[in-house]
Write a structure and sequence with these properties.
It is a single chain. It is globular and about 35 Å long. The longest helix is centred in the middle third of the chain and has 19 residues, at about 65-85. It contains 5 helices and 6 strands, in the order ααββαβββααβ. It has a single domain, classed as 2-Layer Sandwich (Beta Polymerase, domain 2), CATH 3.30.460.10. It is α+β, with helices and mostly antiparallel strands. It has helices spanning about 5-15, 25-35, 65-85, 115-120, 120-125, and strands at about 40-45, 55-60, 90, 100-105, 105-110, 130-135. Helix content is about 40%, strand content about 25%.
């Protein structure tokens, strides 16, 4: 088989990439990990229709202590690695534990202390996004 025909046949077999949604395994795994550690006031922002958005979804929750912020962030990383075989692209804020960001590229998780969440008001900043509450 020639190289050109090999390339052509491989490209036909390539699967189409599906966009993430609220029913995606990654999305559900993150939500369950938050709820397992008693994250509060959890909402998701659907950013897919906003051209400037850096991700498809933001998931935002609160924790009442630095210990709980760390527990939620750690549980998200463990559960996503275990169930989805994915590691975060990056995470930020693990030193101060006032606002921890766990970035899975298409889904970015924000874990806030309540006062920090009130100060930054991400939901207001992205008010064009469709919002859903999760309990």
């Amino acid at each position: 088989m020639s190289t050109l025909s090999l390339l052509t046949s491989q490209s036909k077999e390539t699967k189409a990439i599906s966009r993430i949604n609220r029913n995606s395994k990654l999305f559900k795994t993150i939500l369950n990990a938050i709820l397992e550690k008693k994250g509060e006031n959890t909402v998701s922002l659907d950013l897919r229709k906003i051209p400037e958005a850096v991700a498809d979804f933001f998931i935002i929750c609160e924790a009442t202590s630095t210990t709980q912020v760390r527990a939620i962030a750690d549980n998200i990383e463990v559960k996503v690695r275990e169930l989805c075989n994915e590691a975060p692209y990056r995470h930020e804020g693990m030193n101060a534990l006032q606002w921890v960001l766990v970035d899975y590229v298409n889904v970015v998780v924000h874990i806030f202390q309540p006062e920090t969440r009130k100060f930054y008001r991400l939901e207001e900043m992205w008010s064009d996004a469709a919002t859903a509450g999760h309990e």
